[in-house]
Amino acid sequence: MNTLPAGYRTAVVPPERLEEFRTVDQLAFAVSPDPEVERLLPFPVPLDRLMAVEAADGRYAAVHGSYDLVMPVPGGQVACAGLTWVSVRPDERRRGLLRTMITTHLERSLERGEPVSALFAAEAPIYGRFGYGSAADQVRLTVPRGAALRPVAGSERLTVRLERVDPGRHTELVEDLYVRAGAGRPGWTPRATPVLRAYTVGDPPSRRAGFEPLLLATVLDGQDVRALALFARKASWGEDGADAVVRVREASALDAASTHRLWSFLLDLDLTATVETPPLAVDDPLLHLLVDLRPTRRRLTDNVWVRLLDVPTALGARRYAGPADVVLEVTDTLLPANAGRWRLVVDAAGDAEVTRTDADAHVRLDVRELGALYLGGRSATALGTAGFVLGEGRDLARLTTTFASPLAPVCPWMF
Ligand SMILES: CC(=O)SCCNC(=O)CCNC(=O)[C@H](O)C(C)(C)COP(=O)(O)OP(=O)(O)OC[C@H]1O[C@@H](n2cnc3c(N)ncnc32)[C@H](O)[C@@H]1OP(=O)(O)O
Q1: Pair 166, 273 in one domain
Q2: Given 302, 337, 352, which residue is the final one in a domain?
Q3: ipTM of the prediction greater than 0.90, yes or no
Q4: Is the Cβ–Cβ distance between 72 and 187 less than 8 Å?
């Protein structure tokens, strides 16, 4: 759908216009150009995945791009276009530029064979209208220093090593542990390129906001790294003494004992008062380890939003919990090929076959709700009580069970 003003057009972005692309983004997000940051952290989006809207006079009025991601889904993984850098110049807002860019993004992603798109929403109300569903929540904790953890066997014999982050030595270690720590968790998407991995450990001084240079804590079983955290402290002295903040950028652990050891270390650093966690899944082990959650501040927000671009391929890319035979009637105003009735047959192993059908629908829902359910972190019954998934209670309950994931989805880094 083209909703552009007269004379505007969609255009690919040649390398020589990257600076102009970045300028639109800086204007939209109120970000200052910073040559030092740009030197340390090169532009992360593949150039052949950038698009712009050119105004009638040829300058860029709006831009977007996408990452080439592989997103873990229950029991599998799926090629995923990670929509990003969506920016419309403030003087070009609300003239339909985003709507056209989304149409372009959906079409190009499908042409590349990506059955799913995902994003982090700068503002929550924007993307539902385009069929993106809020598929996961995240929680950030602010934990008082010294908060007690329930004991976990084997934790005490593990050791902790602390050092400054050295991107040359640590980037791949951090990514490797991140991927292994998230095994079995939907949404836990690998940083697909060296540049994205550089962002994980990147630490430009101008972005530190008073915090010390980034530190790496590794939890070791002998020489074997079992857990790690990237974090920094901001020293501060209040009326009652030292009250530094510990800000944890990333925490990955391979098992319960190393999780316990890692957080025991982070929660008891001298001269600190509070510890801020990175975005955690709503069932993260730290929430179970803390003896008393009440003094911990918890901030729950939406995490990743998912859009099914090719419904049968996307539904066939994941596994399901238990056998099912259910007919879904889907609406999709932007991608009509998804609309209509689909029969989802799940065998005893959890593998699905998805075919067109004329049979009566058990459940009726928009592609937005299907995207919300896709990672296994939402309940069809709950969405039904809110009026967004329609069907008999027993059919919604069956769909809820079939789509459920044992671990709550989350993507702990923002793309
Ligand atoms: C995945 C990411 O990259 S998220 C980053 C998004 N970017 C930003 O937040 C940067 C600052 N903001 C902007 O660049 C722009 O205002 C955008 C991208 C949010 C919106 O672009 P626009 O060109 O103004 O959107 P457009 O005119 O196509 O609007 C499409 C619809 O979305 C609605 N809409 C757009 N922005 C918002 C918003 N922030 N909140 C609620 N609704 C919105 C419009 O009202 C319109 O609604 P309609 O379908 O009922 O008519």
Answers
A1: yes
A2: 302
A3: yes
A4: yes
